[in-house]
Specification:
468 residues, mainly alpha
């Protein structure tokens, strides 16, 4: 076993130990689901930011930076914009409802506003899509372990899944919040130390300019658009980070509205600042390793081969922290949605608190296993993440936003928005090969169809009421 792998294994073991120690305090489903609604601004900031910095924000963004240049900023930057909107627009509104009605999941809110059928439909659709998001994180973990020690992809995915399943299943949101705080320190320390050293090793702007792809340096440094990166990420990611069930549940765990605005708002700003780091590291990786065939290996290759041992190991630990912290937020969605939104609501409404806690922990183990299987099948990080964010946005954005702002919106309108959006997404992606229509991405077209079908359903419902 090489030195880097030994240090990384030691770090991951420490995370598991911390999670198990904190998990001893978790004795109820409420603590597992919403941390007893006790998270102040600091812990909320840490757990939201750590959840948002994952495979797409590190390995995926560096891969896009390697290919498209500085326009890769928009992958993480768009997530930061969505997080800011969550902090000051949706977050305070939905926290008050959660406090008043003891809401623990996004499904609880959907049933409160639209009834059990909408809750069950969205929970089932998102549960399947969320597996793709978990797979994306595990692919990134495997890429790092493969680069550091030649660990096969299957074993790398299994190792990443094992770590986050153990500490998350121990204590849910409470465990995640404290482990995320440690991971966040490692993430920022690793990237902030790695960037100047990688910059110096690669040769700075001159080396980046010389490494620009055939389209030329002008496109390489184009901020708003280049290749497949740029503003195109805004309609895909901004809505997703406003209504993500995992982030909403973290908001439910806040102790008051001030914690929501401060903790989530600061995490959005920090995310937008962080967005530059992996994009620049991807560009530097192209300068150092232009022959690299798999862009997903750009970041781990740069950190493992071009930095001093201890610095490179710290940076690799930062990337692993990012993937695992985001993976535990995804596992949070899988476990709580399956146990509360589907199992308790539709199969066993009278389940005791202790029984529900056992089911949630079992769902975490099962979700981790399924995520590994899907990670082995999917080719790249961005492929996996795009599936999730597209489905999340078109199925949840319009109903959730409309439900918070209109009392007239009901079950029919929500069902029309969900069905119209998901069907449009599938149809446009299949018909255009993912290119979209009229200059709009498939996700943006599907969001427009979702809003349109919602509006049509609302007009028809009003006419039926007037006729009756």
């Amino acid at each position: 076993m090489n030195v880097q792998l030994m240090l990384l294994v030691g770090y991951l073991t420490a995370l598991v130990a911390l999670g198990l120690w904190i998990g001893r305090r978790v004795r109820s489903a409420e603590t597992f689901f919403v941390a007893g609604r006790s998270l102040g601004p600091g812990l909320l900031f840490a757990t939201v930011l750590a959840a948002n910095i994952g495979a797409g924000s590190t390995v995926g963004t560096a891969s896009r930076g390697f290919r498209d240049g500085i326009a890769a900023w928009w992958w993480v930057g768009s997530a930061g914009i969505g997080t800011l909107l969550l902090a000051f627009w949706i977050g305070p509104r939905i926290w008050r409802l959660a406090k008043e009605h003891d809401l623990r999941t996004a499904g609880d809110y959907l049933e409160l506003r639209f009834g059990p059928a909408v809750r069950g439909t969205v929970a089932a659709v998102l549960w399947l899509a969320t597996l793709a998001l978990l797979a994306g994180q595990l692919i990134a973990v495997a890429a790092i372990l493969e680069q550091v020690a030649g660990v096969p992809k299957t074993l790398g995915c299994l190792a990443g899944s094992l770590v986050m399943v153990i500490y998350f299943a121990a204590g849910g949101l409470l465990t995640s919040a404290w482990v995320n705080l440690v991971q966040l320190v490692v993430i920022y320390a690793g990237f902030l130390v790695a960037l100047p050293l990688a910059w110096s090793a690669a040769g700075g702007w001159q080396a980046i300019a010389e490494a620009a792809p055939s389209a030329g340096y002008a496109g390489w440094r184009g901020f708003f658009s280049n290749g497949g990166s740029g503003l195109v990420y805004v309609p895909l990611l901004v809505p997703a980070f406003i209504v993500s069930p995992g982030l909403l549940q973290k908001v439910f765990g806040a102790r008051d509205v001030r914690a929501v605005r401060l903790g989530v708002g600061l995490s959005g700003l920090a995310l937008m600042l962080f967005a530059l780091l992996p994009a620049l590291l991807g560009m530097l990786a192209r300068a150092r390793h232009p022959e690299l065939r798999n862009p997903d290996l750009a970041l781990p290759t740069l950190l493992a081969q071009d930095l001093p041992l201890l610095v490179g190991t710290l940076a690799l630990a930062a990337v692993l922290s990012a993937e695992i912290s985001s993976a535990d937020a995804i596992l949070f969605m899988l476990a709580t949605s399956l146990s509360r939104d589907l199992y308790q609501r539709f199969l066993r409404p009278a389940a005791s608190d202790a029984h529900l806690l056992r089911v949630a922990r079992g769902a975490a183990v099962g979700g981790g296993a399924l995520g590994v299987g899907l990670a082995i099948l999917l080719p790249t990080v961005i492929d996996a993440l795009t599936i999730f964010y597209s489905v999340l946005s078109v199925s949840l954005f319009v109903p959730l936003i409309a439900g918070l702002h209109s009392r007239r919106a009901g079950r029919r309108e929500a069902a029309a928005a969900i069905g119209g959006g998901v069907l449009a997404l599938v149809a446009v992606r299949l018909a255009t090969g993912g290119r979209g229509l009229w200059g709009m991405s498939p996700t943006l077209v599907a969001l427009a169809v979702s809003a349109l079908t919602f509006g049509i359903a609302m007009v028809l419902s009003r006419r039926l009421r007037d006729a009756g």
